[in-house]
Amino acid sequence: xxxxVRVAVDAMGxxxxxxxxxxxxxxxxxxxxxxxxxxxxxQEAMDAELAKYTYDKxxxxxxxxxxxxxxxxxxxxxxxxxxxxxxxxxMNLVRHGEADAFVSAGSxxxxxxxxxxxxxxxxxxxRAPLAPLFPTEKGISLLVDSGANVDPRPxxxxxxxxxxxxxxxxxxxxxxxxxxxxxxxxxxxxxxxxVKETFPLLKECRDINFIGSIEARDIPYGAADVIxxxxxxxxxxxxxYEGLAAVLISEIKKGMTSTFRSKIGAALxxxxxxxxxxxxxxxxYGGAPLLGCQGLVVKTHGSxxxxxxxxxxxxxxxxxxxxxxDRIREHICTD
Amino acid sequence: xxxxVRVAVDAMGxxxxxxxxxxxxxxxxxxxxxxxxxxxxxQEAMDAELAKYTYDKxxxxxxxxxxxxxxxxxxxxxxxxxxxxxxxxxMNLVRHGEADAFVSAGSxxxxxxxxxxxxxxxxxxxRAPLAPLFPTEKGISLLVDSGANVDPRPxxxxxxxxxxxxxxxxxxxxxxxxxxxxxxxxxxxxxxxxVKETFPLLKECRDINFIGSIEARDIPYGAADVIxxxxxxxxxxxxxYEGLAAVLISEIKKGMTSTFRSKIGAALxxxxxxxxxxxxxxxxYGGAPLLGCQGLVVKTHGSxxxxxxxxxxxxxxxxxxxxxxDRIREHICTD
Lengths: 335, 335
Description:
The structure is a homodimer. By secondary structure, chain A is an alpha/beta fold.
């Protein structure tokens, strides 16, 4: 039997903590015999939730952490001062090799700060980007970076492309994934200063399947597997995706119930329609890894329910078993 | 009777030229007695189209232009060398005071270059941004800039905010329009270097109703009337809006016809639904003005049909009658 993959889970992070978080962690343990979880959080709260389930107790540990980092707290100060928080404790487990990965639905800012400062970057990695998967007409694409590094330099984007490719290929299973840079036109001379400087570097980069520029319009069609961009632009894409899908879906529901005739139609069509809409309803598919850290840090949606938490834990399994950090260490350009 | 507003129209620009362009121009002349149009293009082609309609011949002129600027041509070279193109001729009419405005569905790049170099900016205006209107849950918002100025400076964005406010108030009729800067979080310390430097300048700026940062997620809800950003980010918003709406609508149609039951439902609900979807289907509502030029330049969607061309011409009427250029001249900060 292969060695267990140890995933620390922030039991106190997110809108539905600790209930849904612990439920998801337990579901992951039940789904895969190769994973064990280490829950970090307030002992009493964790015990109360755990008492609800039947599971293999050998593969679920808890670490008592009296503090919690709240979403509104300034991230740097929170990470520095709340040493006994569920988040800092979980990250320290990864740092000290006592866990392979850490999953949290808590404050994004704190996860980004803690990932880089506590877990630390792989030697040679300039910046650790947040890389969420999101739905497209064809399936899913990876957006690197979507919130960690505003105003990056061109060589940072080259590493984002390399790390994103490795993730898509070995964790998601897309052979030779296509990589594009987010731009405002398809021609090589288009773009802002960052894109113009980065484009030729990506063209020269071996190890990636660079297909050139992608316009935002083509993202929802799934025109590239990995989309490289600065965090400011990436965040715009991700948030607009979320907002526009939600507004369109609500407008469509309104439109479908605007007349008596359409109301009957809606009643008949809605079950099938819901399936379609669901796939475009969430911004983040499972969790978004912070790529390039020594050990894995995964940020799950703040509103994550058990199923997303479970998926994020299972994602850590593939990530660890596929030795993604080693592959990144071997393959990134460090100039 | 008030003086006629003279709108030059590029009869050869866009996917549906000259047929839909000329049809739209004629419709505008028929709709408003206050407008006259000056069509620029190949005489023979224009005459053939004009022969199809009955209209007040006193208010439709033509200018024969043997050349056409194609979409794929490098903009700067095209504007410089094709002096006898429908686009350059139309812009020269505005430059020399023979027309108040110019409308084109042709190459965006050439319109941006020609607008700034032929028509020219108002004294004190640093950059002329492209400001399209787009649909939201509440109505419409204005996005400044969406394609003209990548890598702008903070004081450029302040002018964008001022010019956008004037446009929204006097052309669209939104009293004291709210202005927000596109950002990746609501807090003042968030953002890239450009946003961080621009934010305090906008806060200090009188004449605008600045409400702070807006996240991309809130744009579709209509959270601000005027959204200020650099052209790279603005282009991402605009293009993603277009692409995501199209993909979602196509997915929804697929979803609604996936089962027998849902097919019947779809047949009943679709007429009402189509109305809703239509309002989110086009990126640009009418035309996008290039703000801050001496005289008005309006870029219409490349795929514009007659109704969009007509709306763009009518938009020029309000713009001119409301003396938008004069208001901009009086109100912009020039430091």
